[in-house]
Amino acid sequence: MTLPKHHPLEHRTHTVVDSSVGPLTLVAVDGVLTGLYMHRQRHRPPEETFGEPDPAPFTEVASQLRAYFDGRRTDFDLPMVLAGTPFQRRVWAALRDIPYGETITYGQLADRIGQPTAARAVGLANGKNPIGVIVPCHRVVGSTGGLTGYGGGLATKRYLLDFERGVGGTSLF
C-alpha cells in the first residue's frame, strides 16, 4: 500500500522512544507505522511533517523495539507502510529477508531482487529506508564486507551489527 505524500485526509502522529542507539522518532499515518528515524539520520524528514505527538499508536512498536534492544527479539511483526518508488519498496522488502546477525553485500541484495547490475541503485534505496532497525538496512555491507554508508552513522551501524552478533555493548550512548 502506498500513500501519497501528505494526503489531506491522513492523520499523522509521532512519538519518541529511547533505545541503546539513542532516541528514535516513530511516525504513523492513520495509526500505521510509516517511519522510524534516528536523531541525526541523514534522510530524516522535517519534524513538522511528523504530525502531532501521540504515543498511543506506537505501543506495540515500542514494545517490540524494547524486546529487540534487550536481546529478546530477533525480528519484528508489525503492520507498516513504506512509501517509496516500486524499486525502493522491492529493496526494502528484500531487506526484511536478511536474517538477524547476518550481513549481505549491496551486490548480493541486487541479485536477490533480480537486478544484478543495480548495486549502486540498491545502495541509494537502502539509504532512504524510512523504517530503520525494523527494516534492517544496517545488515547490508560493501563488496569487501566493510561498513559503508548508513543513514544513522557508521558508529550506529557497527553497534547494531555487533549487537546482533552478540559482541557489542549494551548501549551506544
TrEMBL record:
Catalytic reaction equation(s): a 4-O-methyl-thymidine in DNA + L-cysteinyl-[protein] = a thymidine in DNA + S-methyl-L-cysteinyl-[protein]; a 6-O-methyl-2'-deoxyguanosine in DNA + L-cysteinyl-[protein] = S-methyl-L-cysteinyl-[protein] + a 2'-deoxyguanosine in DNA
Pinpoint the Methylguanine DNA methyltransferase ribonuclease-like domain residues.
14-80
Name a single GO cellular component.
cytoplasm
Any single Pfam family the record assigns to this protein: DNA_binding_1
GO molecular-function term, one example from the UniProt record: methylated-DNA-[protein]-cysteine S-methyltransferase activity
Domain Methylated-DNA-[protein]-cysteine S-methyltransferase DNA binding as annotated: residue spans: 86-165
Q: Which GO terms describe its biological process?
A: DNA alkylation repair; methylation
Q: Where in the cell is the protein located?
A: Cytoplasm
Q: Which residues cross the membrane?
A: none
Q: Which domain of life is it from?
A: Bacteria
Any other noteworthy remark?
Answer: This enzyme catalyzes only one turnover and therefore is not strictly catalytic. According to one definition, an enzyme is a biocatalyst that acts repeatedly and over many reaction cycles.
Q: Its function?
A: Involved in the cellular defense against the biological effects of O6-methylguanine (O6-MeG) and O4-methylthymine (O4-MeT) in DNA. Repairs the methylated nucleobase in DNA by stoichiometrically transferring the methyl group to a cysteine residue in the enzyme. This is a suicide reaction: the enzyme is irreversibly inactivated.
Family, per entry: Belongs to the MGMT family.
Q: What is this protein called?
A: Methylated-DNA--protein-cysteine methyltransferase
